[in-house]
Design a protein that fits this description.
The complex is a heterodimer. Chain A is mainly alpha-helical. Chain A has helices spanning about 5-15, 40-55, 60-65, 70-84. In chain A, helix 1 crosses helix 2 (about 40-55) and helix 1 crosses helix 4. Chain B is an alpha/beta fold. Classes of the chains: A mainly alpha, B alpha/beta. The interface between A and B is medium-sized, with 14 and 12 residues.
Chain lengths: ~80, ~350
């Protein structure tokens, strides 16, 4: 399973997005606001999810903000960290 | 001070709503669900009375519920049903107090939070799990949902949680601090609870639940939520009223009861509690309904719901399981009987002889 696929699955499971299917999350859809509709508390949960499921720590929001925009940006961030 | 019961909302192993409870009482049979838990590579299969949340999204949108755990969802569902039953939905509820009685609280969320802390450290502990594991979280969800700005409280005293919390409801109403109390009793099942009960009771948890076999363990775990709208007004007493709530200990000051009262006892297959019923109620007319919803501390609220429904219907329903009744010195109500002028008393014993008594009247 690719990082993107796994991300979509754990997002739905851990954030209880019962009304969303993985296929419905576009790779470039905004995670917050108008897109998937996540909010600031979800941002904290996302940091926990990334560390728990991928072993990648997002140490500060300065670094995390650009990564937490879309599935694409977050997957890229995780892949870079895992490679480094 | 009398507390009028003007609405009931309930969900348990028998289904959701007053009509489902009445049907279970008339039918006399509710089969527990077969559940299984995997532990150390082995599958543990056991019966349990589980609750469905069917219909909750008619009251609250699914998206708004995504951060709310099962315990709080059960709470919100039955609270909504109770307010609907009392025809209070949508009104100004700012002077409505909220009290929740629970033996164990939000068990699953609490253990999930602890597990995440132990497995991954503090940086991976979910803030949502933490906020839901706070003991008054469910009551707070209810208060926020209905804009009930009067006091909000959660009371825990294991088997005595329900009568103990009812005393507070009575006090709030007597003091005029609130116009109504939305009073709820909730407990939930979780895999850790099953593990603990299996350690304590072994095969005694396999059922069937036999409330009158006082010397043997036959409890079957259950879960559910029962809510009541309580007020001072006699005109609101659609299900009668709660006249008195008493807490005591039979081993210290023996319990005495008026002889014409009909008793709904909280016997639920726990041998340690059962012996007190056998001892204190010789020759008394008693009924027990735990085989319809299972064994859990907040089930005392389900007994109260049965009593309230019986008052409205003017009959005491037959006990659903009577095995062991002939061996006891109790007169078990084996067939439905008219209430006549008799009052109903709900009685719950804890393992040490402590008891809670709730007397109702029409």
């Amino acid at each position: 399973m690719s990082v993107k696929e796994k991300l979509k699955r754990v997002l739905i499971e851990d954030l209880n997005l019962e009304d969303v299917e993985p296929d419905e999350i576009d790779d470039d859809m905004a995670l917050f606001g108008e897109g998937l509709g996540l909010d600031s508390l979800d941002a904290v949960e996302l940091v926990v999810i990334v560390q728990k499921h991928f072993g990648v720590e997002i140490k500060d929001m300065e670094e995390g903000r650009p990564a937490l925009q879309t599935i694409n940006t977050l997957a890229k961030y995780i892949e870079q960290r895992l490679a480094g | 001070m009398r507390m009028a019961i003007s609405g009931i909302g309930i969900s348990g192993g028998f289904g959701c709503g007053v009509a489902a409870l009445r049907q279970a009482l008339q039918c006399g049979v509710v089969e527990p669900r077969q559940c299984s838990v995997e532990r150390n590579g082995a599958i543990d299969t056991f019966p349990a009375y589980r609750t469905s949340l069917e219909g909750l999204d008619e009251f609250i949108p699914k998206r708004a519920l995504r951060r709310i755990d099962h315990f709080s969802k059960m709470t919100l569902h039955s609270a909504c049903l109770a307010l609907q039953d009392a025809r209070l939905s949508g009104g100004d509820l700012s002077r409505m107090g909220v009290i929740i009685a629970t033996g164990y609280g939000a068990l699953k969320t609490t253990f999930d939070f602890l597990d995440s802390y132990l497995d991954f450290g503090y940086s991976c502990s979910s803030p949502t799990h933490f906020s839901n594991s706070v003991h008054n979280a469910a009551a707070a969800h209810v208060s926020m949902q209905f804009k009930a700005t009067a006091p909000s409280l959660t009371v825990t005293q294991f088997e005595m949680s329900v009568p103990s919390a009812l005393l507070t409801a009575q006090l709030w109403l007597a003091e005029g601090r609130v116009d109504q109390v939305l009073f709820g009793t909730i407990d939930e099942y979780c895999a850790v609870l099953r593990y603990c009960r299996r350690q304590f009771f072994a095969t005694g948890e396999q059922g069937p639940l036999q409330p009158f076999t006082f010397t043997e363990q036959s409890a079957v775990v259950g879960e559910g939520a029962a809510f009541f709208v309580l007020s001072r007004g006699e005109e609101d007493a659609r299900y009668g009223a709660i006249d008195a709530v008493t807490l005591g200990n039979h081993a210290v000051v023996p319990l005495t009861l008026p002889h014409d009262d009909l008793l709904i006892i909280g016997a639920d297959g726990h041998a340690k509690c059962g012996r007190w019923y056998a001892q204190a109620l010789t020759g008394r007319a008693v009924a027990a309904y735990a085989p319809l919803y299972g064994s859990f501390p907040a089930a005392a609220g389900f007994d109260l719901a049965v009593a309230a429904l019986s008052q409205q219907d003017g009959i005491l329903y037959a006990s659903p399981a009577t095995a062991g009744a002939s061996d006891s010195a109790l007169q078990v109500v084996a067939a439905r009987r008219p209430l006549g002028k008799a009052n109903i008393v709900c009685l719950k014993f804890g393992p040490g002889g402590d008891y809670g008594l709730i007397r109702l009247s029409r």
